[in-house]
Amino acid sequence: MTDAPHPRLDELIATLERLRAPGGCAWDRDQTHASLVQYLVEESAELVEAIESGDDDELVEELGDVLYQVLFHADIAAEAGRFTLEDVAEHMTHKMKGRHPHVFGDVIAETPDAVVATWEAVKAVEKAHRTSVLEGIPAGMPGLALADKALGRAEKVGVTVEPAPVPATEDELGAQLLAVVAGARAQGLDAERALRGALRSLRDRVALAESA
Fold this sequence. Notes:
By secondary structure, the protein is mainly α. Helix content is 70%, strand content 0%. The protein contains ten helices and no strands. The relative contact order is 0.06.
């Protein structure tokens, strides 16, 4: 194993396989894709927190937890004969090479904006089967992240929302958002539900624009 390019990664994969093998851990053997969702969400949130805290020890730990989730799901699928971790890696390699023709092809994109434009152009071809710009946005995303994503997609079909005045810094903006939530709470209103209701209205506007 020491001669392998990534001996510690191979050791982690072997550890997971041992846990899920007959005679291993009963809990690990009992898990499914669906039962692991709650842990994937939790570990992803903890990874975000580690990134924001800037603590390398925490970042190493939380990256490992998320990596383990990927390995876990791949092993479940492999056991059922559906696909393997190698299939996941192969698909992602193909996707990344395809999305970066300015690196692996002859397309020129020398600025970040040009790279984003190239990425979007390639993605549009890959996802040509989609009937709406809003397809592919996970509905389970947190409200603010979902709103940001939906607004960006809506702009592609000419649907915009009048922006409210905001402070100059994220610290001030965070305080303002927190105050809005506090105000909603004082009035007995659910800020998250209200935002998702507004997003449903935005979705209707996008559908109308696309049908036209």
